């Protein structure tokens, strides 16, 4: 008979004593449980003791979290949080250096626990932390423990960052700005400032003023990877908290200092592999930089702006310079206007009498004009060749430069997600972005020449404009998916992917689709599906057994805390626990927390998850909703919450968990994998039928012949 739901069997340890095996009544007050445990060991003053987990983070057991205790858990009897907080509060004020250092070290460890942190902060413990830092008498290991304890205590959000004194902030800043400081202290100081920046405008301005971009660039050039990472984290925090104007100024300054080339050479192409955290920061830096184009992208052309009209006229003058050199008095105003309209028509504007009308559509707005002007000024030969080559044609096969540029700019904005908010988890950046200043404009210059090349290959007319741009989009997307490391390599590959190659790819895909739509093939597909779905199920469970590294994300900032989750080899228990940065695949024994698969009730995804509902303040980040899932276990109020690092991991984990729950796999990845496996299996099965057309209906079975009488009669043989 199974034990009652409110009873869990646990072990309780104490140093120097034989462990107790007890049945914990969850309905019994925790104080009574502690008294019984203390009485068994003849310990007086039970109120001075508390229970905590013996493994993992060693969290204190309280009335609020006691329901998380599972059968088989090992707890430890230890000093209560309030007693521990009192002792450490006194210890960190000790004149004895060894006592003070040990107290600070223990404080840094215990501060991760929310119960202890609450007790320590209620004793005005943070004031003592401030004093140690502000006085500046301690250094080295003692200071590192102090800063670590401060970081952990502030993580619980009991105290506002805005309460920090100016002296404290300046002291933290000084550790970042000084050269002769231990790297661990600089890392912690950078992390504190990173946490501080998003909390208020005032703190952002203080940090931006005190920690210069030059100083952050110096840290980025350090050989210490962790110091480099923390410096990049603070830089990203400053960029995300800045106003549009401040962000533009900061990016301009970073461009002057050649930060892109440095990142391209020393971080992306470093001998050390790129970590997930750094990959995310590089993605954000790329996204922030590209989003500087958003303002121009959303701004329509103002026909009354002299500056914009001059830019428009410069396009005409650069293309038709010799024709424009005719003295002003030679033609009448009307004739001159007619000549300009003709030249704008040759440039490919739809409204040649008033070309500004073509640029009223936003997006791409003035960004298209900027791109055209950049192309004409930085590659004048290619620009003139494009325009003159097409303007001299009268057979309706001319490629309209302006119209193509406007549409191409819009396509590039969509592909590069310009104007979209930064994802909190994405790590997908283009290495070639950091190898080139004016990346967007240079990419446009390559792609507009690709438009002309593809136009000629397709022998297109004006009616084919949308088809050409569709092919160009496909060429760009397919090439970007290859992640070229430089624009030169992108140019080589995108030009190699000409129209005939696109046709071959499309034809292959179409033939494959036609083959798979024949009735006998569809029947074969249905027969193969169950076997292949079982193969996918096994792969999903195998992936869960290997495990995945997840990040803890709060509404305040991107967390740098990690935790790992994996399924036991017998598929009966999910093991999870916190891990340190750099740990790739921790052994299952090192993960203290566990959930029996039998206790799992349901899987929640997206908006249904409790950790997405909690983030009620501000606009919910779209990517977090797309990557969030939760496991409901025991009773509905207990959930294990996840935010997958990628959409791929989200699909594999949700599929695997559905398999464990005995439900259908519902992710889009399941369908993709099934299609790939079916395609491979069908090709192997139909290999002998190549070039043989498969009829929709099976051939008729002929009638049996009239002389079908050759059966052997055994009854006669026996006689």
UniProtKB/TrEMBL annotation:
Domain ELMO: 307-480
Gene Ontology molecular functions: SH3 domain binding
Domain of life: Eukaryota
PROSITE patterns: ELMO
InterPro entries attached to this UniProt entry: ARM-like, ARM-type_fold, ELMO_ARM, ELMO_dom, ELMO_domain-containing, PH-like_dom_sf, PH_domain
Pfam families, per database record: ELMO_ARM (PF11841), ELMO_CED12 (PF04727), PH_12 (PF16457)
GO biological process: actin filament organization; apoptotic process; cell motility; phagocytosis
Alphabetized UniProt keyword annotations: Apoptosis, Phagocytosis, SH3-binding
Annotated function: Involved in cytoskeletal rearrangements required for phagocytosis of apoptotic cells and cell motility. Acts in association with DOCK1 and CRK. Was initially proposed to be required in complex with DOCK1 to activate Rac Rho small GTPases. May enhance the guanine nucleotide exchange factor (GEF) activity of DOCK1.
Name of this protein: ELMO3 protein
Organism ancestry: Eukaryota, Metazoa, Chordata, Craniata, Vertebrata
Record gene name: Elmo3
């Amino acid at each position: 008979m199974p034990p009652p739901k409110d009873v869990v069997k646990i072990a309780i340890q104490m140093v120097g004593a034989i462990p107790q095996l007890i049945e914990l009544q969850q309905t019994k007050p925790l104080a009574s449980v502690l008294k019984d445990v203390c009485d068994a060991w003849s310990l007086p003053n039970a109120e001075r003791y508390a229970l905590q987990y013996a493994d993992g983070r060693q969290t204190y057991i309280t009335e609020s979290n006691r329901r998380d205790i599972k059968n088989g858990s090992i707890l430890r009897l230890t000093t209560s949080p309030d007693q521990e907080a009192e002792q450490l509060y006194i210890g960190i004020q000790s004149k004895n250096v060894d006592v003070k250092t040990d107290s600070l070290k223990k404080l840094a460890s215990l501060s991760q626990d929310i119960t202890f942190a609450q007790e320590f902060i209620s004793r005005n413990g943070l004031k003592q932390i401030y004093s140690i830092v502000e006085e500046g008498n301690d250094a080295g290991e003692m200071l590192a423990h102090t800063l670590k304890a401060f970081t952990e205590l502030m993580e619980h959000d009991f105290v506002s960052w805005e309460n920090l004194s100016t002296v404290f902030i300046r002291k933290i800043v000084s550790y970042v700005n000084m050269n002769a400081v231990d790297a661990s202290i600089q890392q912690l100081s950078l992390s504190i400032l990173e946490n501080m920046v998003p909390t208020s405008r005032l703190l952002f301005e203080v940090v931006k003023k005190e920690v210069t971009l030059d100083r952050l660039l110096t840290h980025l050039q350090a050989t210490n990877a962790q110091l480099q990472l923390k410096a990049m984290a603070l830089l990203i925090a400053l960029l995300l908290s800045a106003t549009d104007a401040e962000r533009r100024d900061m990016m301009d300054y970073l461009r002057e200092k050649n930060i892109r080339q440095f990142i391209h050479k020393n971080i992306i192409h470093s001998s050390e592999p790129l970590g997930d955290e750094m990959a995310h920061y590089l993605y954000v830096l790329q996204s922030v930089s590209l989003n500087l184009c958003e303002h121009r992208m959303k701004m329509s052309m103002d026909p009354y702006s002299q500056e914009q009209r001059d830019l428009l006229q410069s396009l005409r003058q650069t293309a038709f310079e010799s024709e424009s050199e005719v003295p002003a008095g030679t033609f009448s105003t009307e004739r001159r206007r007619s000549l300009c309209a003709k030249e704008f028509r040759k440039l490919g504007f739809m409204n040649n009498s008033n070309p500004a009308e073509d640029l009223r559509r936003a997006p791409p707005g003035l960004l298209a004009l900027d791109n055209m002007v950049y192309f004409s000024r930085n590659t004048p030969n290619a620009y003139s060749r494009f325009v003159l080559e097409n303007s001299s044609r009268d057979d309706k096969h001319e490629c309209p430069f302006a119209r193509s540029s406007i549409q191409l700019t819009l396509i590039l904005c969509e592909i590069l997600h310009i104007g979209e908010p930064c994802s909190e988890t994405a790590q997908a950046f283009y290495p070639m972005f950091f190898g080139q200043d004016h990346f967007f404009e240079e990419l446009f210059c390559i792609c507009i020449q690709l438009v002309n090349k593809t136009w000629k290959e397709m022998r297109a007319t004006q009616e084919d404009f949308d088809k050409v741009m569709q092919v160009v989009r496909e060429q760009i997307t397919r090439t970007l998916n290859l992640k070229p490391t430089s624009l030169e390599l992108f140019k080589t590959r995108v030009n190699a992917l000409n129209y005939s190659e696109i046709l071959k790819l499309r034809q292959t895909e179409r033939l494959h689709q036609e083959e798979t739509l024949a009735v006998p093939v569809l029947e074969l597909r249905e027969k193969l599906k169950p076997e292949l779905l079982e193969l996918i199920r096994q792969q999903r469970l195998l992936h869960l057994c290997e495990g995945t590294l997840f990040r803890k994300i709060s509404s305040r900032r991107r967390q740098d805390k990690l935790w790992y989750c994996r399924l036991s080899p017998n598929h009966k228990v999910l093991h999870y626990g916190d891990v340190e940065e750099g740990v790739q695949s921790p052994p299952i024994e090192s993960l203290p927390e566990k959930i029996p698969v039998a206790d799992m009730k349901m899987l929640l995804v997206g908006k249904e998850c409790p950790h997405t509902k909690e983030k009620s303040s501000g606009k919910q980040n779209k990517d977090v909703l797309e990557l969030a899932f939760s496991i409901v276990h025991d009773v509905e109020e207990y959930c294990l919450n996840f935010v997958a690092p990628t959409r791929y991991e989200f699909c594999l984990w949700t599929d695997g968990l559905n398999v464990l729950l005995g439900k259908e796999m519902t992710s889009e990845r399941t369908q993709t994998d099934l299609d790939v496996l079916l395609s491979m299996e069908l090709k192997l099965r139909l290999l002998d039928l190549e070039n043989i057309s498969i009829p929709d209906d099976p051939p008729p079975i002929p009638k049996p012949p009239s002389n079908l009488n050759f059966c052997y009669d055994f009854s006669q043989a026996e006689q």
